[in-house]
What we know:
Layout: H1 18-26, E1 36-39, E2 42-45, H2 51-68, E3 73-79, E4 89-95, E5 112-119, H3 123-136, E6 141-146, E7 151-159, E8 162-169, E9 174-177, E10 182-185
Parallel strand pairs: 5-6
Antiparallel strand pairs: 1-2, 3-4, 4-5, 6-7, 7-8, 9-10
Amino acid sequence: MATNAIDVKKYSPYRFSIEQYYRMAEVGLLAPDARTELIEGEICDMPPIGSRHAATVSWMHRQLLKAVGDRALVFEQSPLRLSRHSEPQSDLMLLRPRRDHYSEAHPTARDALLVIEVCDSSWLYDREVKMPLYAAYGVREAWLVDIGVKTLNCFGAPHGGAFVEQTSMQIPGSLAVPSLDVHVNLARLFSFADYSVS
């Protein structure tokens, strides 16, 4: 056995800060059209947006707008600043209304009333990485829409770095957003043929 072998366990991987992440984009180290997000200091590639993913996000955006009115802002595929080293890009968010509409700074976990991720090929990443991340930073409620198996997973009550409550459904119907005391009509969530008339 070699005596000069390096014990890699003694070394921690370098974690990028949000400031460094943005600077890399400014100087061209990240391509202008690159789909990435910063997760605990690691720059992660995001998969291309397929047509089913795009259609689902667009449809849910309209349903959320109908449900919340002026009670919340609906953001689509926007950054959520969780810490100095984490800024995921959520597919949809319900945010507390703010006078500047978040033009001065990205929303944080305290601003997020609901975070929604839509997945197809990225199911494992969204469930095993992003859902625990949202829980760890205190996002109060998150939904994971799995269009591959047509299932909506609802996560709530973050505690100790995990969501304590979880429910799954294939026909959501009218679903409550507890923080706003409103219901969102998701009865046609997985019926893509009906999008044009909903």
